[in-house]
Design goal:
By secondary structure, this protein is α/β, with parallel strands linked by helices. It contains seven helices and six strands. It has a six-stranded parallel sheet with strand order 3-2-1-4-5-6, with helices on both faces. 28% of the residues are buried.
Length: 192
């Protein structure tokens, strides 16, 4: 680890992996109805569908638990190149919550990160208690994780990765970004 570089903590789903598209694809299989990501304007996707009188939670959770789901997620366009670039500027670690309902999630996620981003297992931290992980910059799409991390790491930069589903929450964080170039600006600012 290069002591001069900031420690960057990146989430996976919603930052690197397009979890939402996978869920919306499965909802279409279950209901025959199509939705686009911009329609999902609340964090709890299942409540969104309940408001539309669609009970998809059980079916979606079953799909997440299936072997192959985590390994089959698509990386966001451009994220692979950006992660390669950020590896040269930071001490990059992945901080991701395991899906306890899936017996293969951790193995598949580790494989997926190595396959797409060449991130070794010793740079991946699995925990739902992300606030306990120390670093200089924390990036996640879940407002609760970002706010909790900031409370426990007041000197660090808490970054919320912007999506329509987290825009209604204006909790306590330092930055909201919607692209890699904006994250790079934050990293450069905290590298001085």
């Amino acid at each position: 680890m290069d002591e001069k570089r900031p420690v960057l903590l990146l989430d996976v789903d919603g930052v690197l992996a397009d979890f939402m598209s996978a869920m919306l694809g499965h909802v279409k299989e279950l209901t025959g109805q199509s939705f686009v990501k911009s329609e999902i304007t609340q964090w709890d996707i299942f409540k969104f569908f309940e408001h539309k009188s669609l009970n998809v939670k059980a079916g979606c959770l079953e799909r997440i638990a299936e072997p192959g789901f985590a390994a089959g997620l698509e990386p966001y366009p451009g994220s692979i190149e950006w992660v390669d670039r950020l590896k040269g500027l930071t001490n990059l670690y992945i901080v991701t919550a395991p899906a306890d309902i899936s017996p293969t999630w951790v193995h598949e996620r580790t494989w997926w990160l190595n396959r797409h981003y060449r991130i070794p297992a010793d740079r991946i931290i699995y925990t739902a208690s992300k606030h306990l992980v120390r670093g200089d910059i924390f990036v996640d799409d879940r407002p609760e994780f970002v706010c909790e991390w900031k409370k426990h790491n007041p000197e660090g930069a808490a970054v919320l990765w912007d999506h329509p589903y987290n825009r209604a929450q204006n909790d306590f964080y330092d930055y909201r970004v919607d692209g890699w170039d904006k994250l790079l600006e934050i990293i450069l600012k905290h590298s001085v």
